[in-house]
């Protein structure tokens, strides 16, 4: 008897939680929406909507922003909106020599962000905890307002044990317990460890108007290494072992240079920023970019060859995944539209049928795409989905 009662209570709580997320989702999607409008859209009773919105108001996740102007002489409906100051997220982008950490409000707007250097990656957990607390204190945000923490990491992630198993970018081992240190210091938070390219892809498909209507996206992140974020039906695709998106380790030339992963001719060895720098050692990256714009032959040959390799890699991925668009992001975007045009030209030469018209675009996300995507990912996971 008790089990049936417990199941009934659990079922009621599940339904209530799902309805609460649905209400918050509608408030998030509209620039001011009334209780009556929410009831009409959801088909839930006005009493249920009133109870759910009151709970969201009490938690300060939403607030009332005034009344709606109506033509009739009746009572003006009160509009609801997400309370940007009601909660926050901390998001981290792990990089080769440290990390970027940002605090975002409930509307995924950056409150404060900073780049931190880290000489010893064994101290990562300790550093992340300390800088998170310092930034919260600096912005005068109480710890109980922190809903979640997202960590974007370049590498292969063990989802079940929350470890970065390996990375060709950051000097980390699977014995690094930074996740456990964050859990210990922020026990009430939802903490997510996600591949950095996946979070950047999430930011693109949510915040860029040109592609936000799409549901399937391939995002290619090119800097020290090359990764990919894959969005399928609006969700991040990781694969059963979190190995999806290792785009930099697609082999383009079996006789090419040996990669750290053990294979030869990986895209990371041919089209990444270090691969370009290696061919042009006497120039800084800024000098390479400048000389590329000015059509210097030595630089143009190297950079365009990098673009050609990338086009072949994109073609392989597109033939497999059939996305609705491809976005190129990361440090490679320093070469701008000229580089993109070279990629598109080669891609059109080798691609199949309708793929030739596939949109290939440069990233349009401003600021740090990894942490912005992390903020939205947390918002969706905790309050919407």
Overall number of strands: 15
Main sheet characteristics? 5 strands, mixed
- Listing every helix as H and every strand as E from the N terminus to the C terminus, the arrangement reads HEHHEEEEEHEEEHEHEEEHHHHEHEH
Poorly predicted regions: none
The total domain count is 3
The average pLDDT value, as a whole number, equals 93
As for the CATH topology of the largest domain, it is Nucleotidyltransferase, domain 5
What do you see in this structure?
By secondary structure, the protein is an alpha/beta fold. It has three domains: 81 residues, Winged helix-like DNA-binding domain superfamily/Winged helix DNA-binding domain (Arc Repressor Mutant, subunit A, Orthogonal Bundle), CATH 1.10.10.10; 101 residues, 2-Layer Sandwich (Nucleotidyltransferase, domain 5), CATH 3.30.420.40; 153 residues, Nucleotidyltransferase, domain 5. It has twelve helices and 15 strands. The strands form four sheets. It has a five-stranded mixed sheet, with helices on both faces. Helix 1 packs across helix 3. The longest helix has 28 residues.
